[in-house]
Amino acid sequence: MNASISFREVIPKNLGSVEWIEVNINTGTQITLQDIKTFEKSGGYCFKSVGNVQTRNRFIYWRTYQDVLELSDVSLDVSLLRNHLRLRFTDSAVLNVSLTEEAHQINLLVVTVSSVHRFVFPIKSDGDEPGIGDGLQPQSIFCDVNDKAINPMTFCVDGFGTSPNNLPHVAASFVSHIEDECFAYFAVAYPTKLMLHVMNCATGNTTSQEVKESHLMPRFLSNLKGALIGRTEAQEAAVSMAFSQIDDEIYLLVLYRSNELRLWSVDTVQPISSINCTAQAVMASQGPQNNVIRKIDEETFCIFISLDIGAQFIGVSIVPNPGDANGRATLLLQHTVPAPKMDMADFDATSSHIWVLWSNAEGDFNVSAYFLCADESIRWVSAALEPPPDRYCLQIEQGVDPREAYCSFIFHPGRFDRNVIAKALYMFRRVNMQFDVKQLSMAMLKEQVCQAVEEEIQNELKEIVVSDEEYTEIATRLWDRFYSGCEQYHVKFSEPTGLAVLPSMDAVCIVRRQSFALLRPCEMLEHLMLIGEHTDASLLAPYCHNDSTAAIGFIELMKVVTHLEKLLSEDIKMELDKKLYQQESAYDVVKRMLLETSEEGDDNNIYAMDPLLIKQMKQYMQDVPNIELAINMLLDVLSMVNEESESQLPNYSQSMRYLLPTGALFGSEYGLSVLAETVKQIAMIRFSVSRNLFILQCISFGEIGSEKESLIRNLNYLNSYFALVWIAETPISLNAPAGFEASVQRLTMAQLFDGYTRPFSSNARGLGIGQTTLLSLFLQSKGLFSALSMLLKTSPNSDAADSLSLRENLLQLVGFINQMLWPDAPNYVFPEWLFGTCHHIIIQDYVRILSRWCKRKSHSRRFMLAVSLLDSGEPHKAVFLFEEAASGVLHEPFLFEHVLKHTPLYSRLQGLDEMDQTTEDRMQATVHYYLKVIQLFVQHSALDYIIQLANMAMNMLLPNDPQLPMFQSIIFNNHLQLGHYEEAYHALVHNADTSRRKDCLRQLVIELFQNKGLDMLIEFPYVGLQDEFENIVESRARSISIEHNEVYNFLYAFHVNKGNMRKAATVMYEQAMRLQVDNDSPNALQKRCSALLVCINCIHLVDQRYRWIAKPAIGDERVPMDQDPEDQVNGQQVVVLELEDIQRELLLAEALREFTSHRDDAVSYDQAGAEELSHLLATSGLYTAALKLSRGYDFSVLPIFECLTAACIMATEDKTTDAWSWLQKNDLADLAHRNNAADMAWALLQKLVVDNELDASTLIRKSVVNRLLTLNAFIPQWLYDSYKLANSRELLQLFVKHNRLIEAADLACEMISAMLGAGSEYFDFEHSVNVKNPQLAFPINTIDLLLHCLRENSKEHIDYEMARVQLEEEVSRYIKTVKRTTEDKMKLAILQNRENRQQQQLLNR
C-alpha cells in the first residue's frame, strides 16, 4: 500500500430497521449505575475467512454504554437474519469486551464491574447447512440467542469491590488453549489492586487471585519506599491492560498511571519485565488523556501515552531476554511516533499502520493513519469523513410547496435514518407519545411528519386569514424547524465512538452511535481534492506515464482545480447542475456567467463569478507548466472507458462462481450499500473536477475555447459524470410500479425482456424502506453480477480473484460499475436493465439527459424511450421515435440482439462488418424491426399508429419487395378493426398478393356482416373480385345457422342491385330449402314461404327462355346415371326447376304453414306429401287450404268434399258440436254471414262445390251427394237442383243405389215429365220428346231397377206401392208418347223421303 494515499469513509445507507435480540443478564450486584462512571466503548472483530465463504467479508462490531453491550454481526456478502444482539447486564457497567475465534465458534468475553462472562456462538462452515430463515436467508451467529440460551455456569459474580469507592475501572480478557484445555483469563483493575480470574471453559469453575509483587519487607516499609522515590498508590493503579500468549506462556501487560509498563507472568503471578514509557521525556508529567494499550499481535503492542508536552505512540515488543538463563521474556521499546495535537478518542494498530480517531474541542472528529515502514519516512495520512447533509442544497424555488421540497429532501433515500426522523418527530410534537419505528414504513412516517407539521401550521394560524405568501413563510419556518431537529439527531447518532481494524478484510471500521462505517482508500483525484496532502510527483508519476515533468504540471493543475472548488459559491454550482439537468449547454451557461460578470458588473447577481476570482484563476492557469499536457493527462484520468474496456462485456456464467446459495460477493444489503455509496462519492468528486476544469478552460481559452478538442472532450465528461451522479441520487420505489407485470409480459411477448434479473425481486428486508436510489436497485438486481463477471475477466485465476482484499475488490468493482453506467460505454447493461424496470418517468428522464450530447447508443435509447412512451399511453410520441431508431438496427448491438435475435438474419449477420452488409440485409432488418414495433403497438391496441408504422415500412421497401403484401395486409387489418371499411377495401384491392387479397376480402365481408355494414358491401365495386366475393358470401351463408341467417337476404339484394334476377331467385330458393331442412323454429315456414314468393317474383322478371333454376339433387331426387350431361354441374347431379315446380313448392309450404298453425302435432307431418297433407288439412277442417293445395298438385279433391259434407251433416245434426271452430279456419270472405253455424257450413259447401266443379263435370256433386246419401242425410235443395241440371240420370242412380226409393221415384216421375216436355228446363235435357227432336237417353235400367225395388217393398209399406203405381203410370205414358212420336217420325220420314225422290226426279228430267 502506498503510504501517501488517503482514505475516505463509506457509510452504508438506506438499510432496513434494526431488530435487536434483547437478553437480560442478572449479575447479582447491589450497586446502581449512578455510582459508576463509565465511558462509551466500541470495537470490532473480523472473521478469519480462510476457506470459508460464510465468513468472507464478515465482521462483528460492538459498542457499550453503561450496562448495555450491543453486538452486530455484519457480512458484506450475505444478508444475515437476526444479526443484532443487545446484552443488558443488570446495573453492572461493562468494562471490557473481547472476541476471539476458534475452529467453529466465536468466544465473547465480557467483564463488568461485578462479573466476568464467557459466551460461545457457533459458526457455520461451508459444509454445514446454512441457517435458514425467512426466504432462505442465512442466520447470524446470534440467531438462536435468548434468555434461556445463557448458561449461568458461564459467568461468576466477583465478590470484590462492591463498594462504590472501590469499583474496578479497567479490565482485560483473553482465551487460551493449552494442551486441549481451554481457559478464559480476566484481569480486573481496582483503584488499589489488580485481580486475575481464570475460568475453566469446560466446567465454568473460576479461580481468583491478586496480582502483586512479593514483598520481603513489611507493608509500611514498602509504603515508605514509595514515598521516598515519589511513587504513590494512585500511580500504581493500572490504566490499561492486555494479555499475550507466547509458546504456551500467558503474559499480562499492564500500563500503570505512572507510565510504567510491566509484564506479568500469569502462571507465577510475578512481574517479569518493566520499562518506563516516558524514559525519553523524564521531565514530562501525565497529560490530560488516558493512556491506552492496543495489541497488534502476541508479541507486539502499541501504547498511547499522553504527556503534558504532547502525546505519542510507542511500539513495544515482547522478546526473549538473552541474559536470562530461564529464557524469560523482556520488554523492548521499538519506536516512538509523535501524535498530532488533538484528543485521541480511540485507536487501533496493525504491523503496518496506526489508525487513530481524533476529536477536537468543537466536537469534530477526524481519522488519520500512520504508516510504519522502514524504507519510507513516517507520516500521518488523513481520512475524509462524511459530512452531515448540506443544508444549503435545500433551496425552495418560488412557487414550490415547502412541504414538497422538504419532504423530498428529508426522505431522500439514505439521507436520514428512520430513527432520526422519528426522534425529530417526537421533539417537534413535544408530546410523550412514541410508536414502534420497526413497524412504521417510510411512507407512513412521512405521513405522520406531514400531519404533525400541518397541525403546527394550523395552530399558528388558528382563525387568522393570511395571504398565500404569509402561509408559505410560516410553512417554510416550521418545516425548517423540523429539518433542524433531523439534522441535530443525525449528527448525534452519527458521532463516532471508536474504530477497529479488520485484518482479514484489510479494512477499518468506524463504530458510530447507531451505525458503522468503513474506510476505503481514496482514488487519486479524491486524494487531491479532499485531502491534498503528500502530493509529490513520485506519487502521481504512474498516472502520467511515469513522466515526472507531466506529473508536476498535473499536480499544479489539480491544485488550481481544488482551489477553485473552495472559491466557487454554492449558488453557481447548483445553477450549473440545474442547467445541465435542463439540457442547456454547459459551455453556454459558463460563458453567460463570465459575460454577466465582465459586462454588467452586477454584484447582486448570485450566478455571476467574481471578476477577481476570474483574474486569479486565469493567472494560476498561466503558471501551470505544460498546461495542455496537464489538461490532457487529467482528461485521461477522468476517462472511464478505454480500449481494454471495449471488450469487457459482462459474462453472467463466470460470475456465478461468486454466487453462493445465500448471497454473492458484496451481495448483502451492507455490501451493496457500500458499493453504491462508493460509486456515488467517486462520481461526485469526478464531476466536481470536470466541472472546475471546464470553468478554468473557459476562462483560459476565451472565445476560441469552443473549438478546443480538450474542452469538447471535457464537456462530454462533464455531461457523463452528471449522468452518473443523477443515477446515484435519483430515488426509485422498491415496489414494482403500477402495471409492472403487464408491462413485463408485453416486453416478454415481444422478446425484449429475458427475465434474467427481475429488478424488484431483491432483499425482502428492504420492504420497510419504501425507496432506494436508482444505482442501489441496479446493483441489487443486475449490476453487481455484471461487475463480478468483468472482475473475473481481469483475474481469470480463481485463487488470485479470491485473494483480493476488500479494498482491491471494492475499487475494481466500482470501476467496472462506473464503466457500465458510463453513457459512452460499449455495453448496454444499465440501459437494458433500466428498460426492464418499466419505471417510465425515470427511463424518459434518463434518455432526456443524454439525448442532447451523447451520440453513442442514441438509436437504442430512442427505442427504449419509445417503448416507455408507448407503455405510458403516448403512442403519438412513440411512433416518431421508433421511426428515428429504425436506422440503428444493424449498427447498435442492443437493437441487433433484441430485434433480430430469433430470426435467420441474426446468424448470418452476426460478426459481419457494416461494409459486408448488403442492401437486401438492411431491408430485411428494417422489416423485422417494424414487425417488432408493430407487435408492441398491437399489444397496446394502438391501431391508428400501426397503420402509420406499416406505411413507414412500405415507404422503405421496393415495389416488388416480397414483404410488401404483408404490410399491406397489416394496414388492411387495422383499418378493419378501426371500422375504416372503405380504407380497408382500398387496402385489399391494392394488395399485390392474390391469396392475401382474397383472405382480406373474406375478413372484410365477415366484419361488415357482424357490424351490419351491408350497404357498404353492396356499394363496393369488387373489380376483379366479384366472383370471389360471391363465393365468400355464399360460403358464409351456408356456414351460418339458417335460424338467424341474414346473408341470403343480402345476397338477394346484391344480385338484384346488379340486375341478376336468376341468381337472386337461386339464392332465395336455397334459403327456402335450408329453412325446410335445417330449421325447426315456429316462423321457419313463414320465412320459407316468403323466400319462395320472392324467388317466384324474381323468376317472373327473367326472360321466358331462362325461367328456370338448378339445385343439387338430394336423396330421392337423384337421377339415373344416364342423365343428360347438361343437368350436371361440376360433376354434381342437379335438378332443374321451372316456375311451376317452384309454385307447387310454395303451395305445399303455405299449406304446411296453415296446418302447423292449427295443429300442435304438425311437426310429425313435416315430411308428408302434398296429397297426404291435403287429407290432413281436410281432417283438420282446413278445407279451403286443402282445396288450394289439391288444385296446385292436380290430385282428386273428392275426399276433401266428402270430409266437408260430413262436417256439414255433423253441424246440422249434432248441436253440441261447435262448427264455428273449423269454419273460422276457412276462407269465408265471400259468404254472407249467417247466425247458424250449420247454415254457414252448408253455404261454404255450396260455394266450394260451385267454385271447384268443372264444366260438364259432376264428380264433386256426385261425391257430395254420395256422402250425403251414405250418411242418410237429405240433399240440400241447391245441390239437388244443381245436380238435376248437371246430370239427373246420375242423381237418380245414386238415389236408387242408396235405397232412397221414394225420392228416386219422385225424381224419376219428374224426369219423365220433363222428357215429355213438362219442366224440362229444370233438368239437363236439351229438348223434350218431340217429332222434330232427337231421341232422348232414357235410364231404363235404373228405372227398371227402381220399379223392381218398389215392387219388392210395396208389400211392407203403402208409400212404396203408391210410388210404384205412379211411376209405372209415368213410364207407360212415356212409352206411349215415345211410340206415337216414333210412328210420327217414321211417317214424317217416309213423307220427306217421297218428297225428296220427287224433287230428284224433277231435277233429272
From TrEMBL:
Pfam families: Beta-prop_Nup120_160, NUP160_helical, TPR_NUP160_120_M, TPR_Nup160_C. It comes from the Eukaryota. Residues 1138-1388 form the NUP160 C-terminal TPR domain. The keyword Transferase does not apply. Its main location: nucleus. InterPro entries: Beta-prop_Nup120_160 (IPR059141), Nucleoporin_Nup160 (IPR021717), NUP160_helical (IPR056547), TPR_NUP160_C (IPR056536), TPR_NUP160_M (IPR056535). Residues 58-526 form the Nucleoporin Nup120/160 beta-propeller domain. The keyword DNA-binding does not apply. One of its GO terms (molecular function) is structural constituent of nuclear pore. This is Nuclear pore complex protein Nup160 homolog. It comes from Drosophila willistoni. The gene is Dwil\GK14894.
